[in-house]
Automatic annotation (TrEMBL):
Keywords: Manganese, Metal-binding, NAD, Oxidoreductase. PROSITE patterns: IDH_IMDH (PS00470). InterPro entries: ICDH/IPMDH, IsoCit/isopropylmalate_DH_CS, IsoPropMal-DH-like_dom, TTC_DH. It comes from Orrella daihaiensis. This is D-malate dehydrogenase (decarboxylating). It catalyses: (R)-malate + NAD(+) = pyruvate + CO2 + NADH.
Length: 356
């Protein structure tokens, strides 16, 4: 009996609506070809259009509804006519926090055939996984404004970190580092300037590291980490940082690997109490919507991460091999990679590559 996975799809806004159906198409083809597992998809029309009709980005019962699925494939949330804090907090962050997806994981590699901006940097020089704390820290939503609009106005954003939250993300990062060939972890903080929570990170890292004597690890300040990513990419393997710091570092990583359109993310509940959510890292990109310019590779690679999380390694490997066969041929590159291929042409190429 082949297993059937129930996948919730949330295309969201902008090019999310273009790339997520391509992901569905590729996953269905993969299931047919490998006969390893089946997928049952259900699509949810949450996002900007839903907000215009209902005044909310998703229904109150939305998080509860998602709990019955095996995994979630997400497009993007963002709309030029709706303030960012509504689109972000009303959908994506609500799901991440509601399903306690505390580990945001972003693998970064230079795929075959991609021109990366770093000179003398090829696939063997850049193979990272960035782990981002995904539920608290700088994006905990703690803070406020008093005397709004007056000269004496005060506004605060409190970076709230808990011992439990920091411990579990560091533990996850050490475990992930241990599972990779180089068994190496870089813990990034800013403990020279942020003298409370970040110092606690450093202390907890020292404690957790004792349980991982086989992992080589070091500490780096976030500003120095940006330079190191550019100057010594080989010196990094697995990297872990707070919500804000890793948000920035992982966009830098995506750009260094060639394009925002390629990079994938998993928002994971490592304890598997709830479904995890997989999404391309790019946003809604309204500037290219409806033109066939959206690169679907970020969605396909996210589907690979989803398959790995579901334990379907063979399907994951087959899809990743197809993706790399496609990127290796420049005629399959979309405009963000300097080519002229359309979204649908890239999907068609991946479907052909799955045949061989
Ligand atoms: P959001 O507000 O939702 O983050 P955005 O308009 O800022 O959306 P991003 O997705 O963050 O757009 O991307 C920035 C730019 O990179 C886009 O304007 C677009 O031109 C380009 N881009 C992003 N994703 C892709 C993609 N998948 N394929 C091609 N180009 C992309
Ligand atoms: Mg953006």
């Amino acid at each position: 009996m082949t297993k059937t996975y129930r996948i919730a799809m949330i295309p969201g806004d902008g090019i999310g609506k273009e790339v997520i159906p391509q992901g569905q198409c590729v996953l269905q083809a993969l299931a047919q070809k490998t006969r390893r597992a089946q997928f049952e998809f259900e699509s949810f029309d949450w996002g900007g259009d839903y907000y215009r009709k209902h005044g909310v980005m998703m229904p109150d019962s939305g998080v509860q509804t998602l709990k019955s699925f095996d995994a979630i494939l997400f497009g993007s949330a963002g709309d030029p006519d709706i303030p960012d804090h509504i689109t972000l907090w009303g959908l994506r962050l609500k799901i991440c926090q509601g399903l306690d997806q505390y580990a945001n994981v972003r693998p970064t590699r230079i795929l075959r055939g991609i021109d990366a901006p770093l000179k003398r940097c090829g696939p063997e020089d850049l193979d990272w996984v960035i782990v981002r704390e995904n539920t608290e820290g700088e994006y905990a939503g703690v803070g406020g404004r008093v005397h709004q609009g007056h000269p004496i106005e005060v506004a605060t954003d409190v970076s709230m970190m808990t011992r439990a939250g920091v411990t579990r993300i560091l533990r996850y990062a050490f475990e992930l580092a241990r599972s990779r060939p180089r068994k190496q972890l870089t813990v990034v903080t800013k403990s020279n300037a942020q003298r409370h929570a970040m110092v606690m990170w450093d202390e907890i890292a020292n404690e957790v590291a004792k349980d991982f004597p086989d992992v080589t690890w070091d500490k780096e300040l976030v500003d120095a980490a940006t330079a190191r990513m550019v100057n010594k990419p080989r010196s990094i393997d697995t990297l872990v940082a707070s919500n804000l710091h890793a948000d920035i570092l992982s966009d830098l990583a995506a750009a260094l690997a060639g394009s925002l359109g390629i990079a994938p993310t998993g928002n994971l509940d490592p304890e598997r109490r709830y479904p995890s959510m997989f999404e391309p890292i790019h946003g809604s990109a309204f500037d290219i919507m409806g033109k066939g310019l959206a690169n679907p590779i970020g969605t396909f690679w996210s589907a690979v991460m989803m398959l790995e999380h579901l334990g379907e390694q063979e399907m994951a490997d087959r899809l990743m091999a197809a993706i790399e066969a496609v990127t290796a041929d420049r005629s399959n590159h979309t405009r963000d990679l300097g080519g002229a291929a359309t979204t649908e042409a890239v999907t068609a190429a991946v479907l052909r590559a799955l045949d061989v």
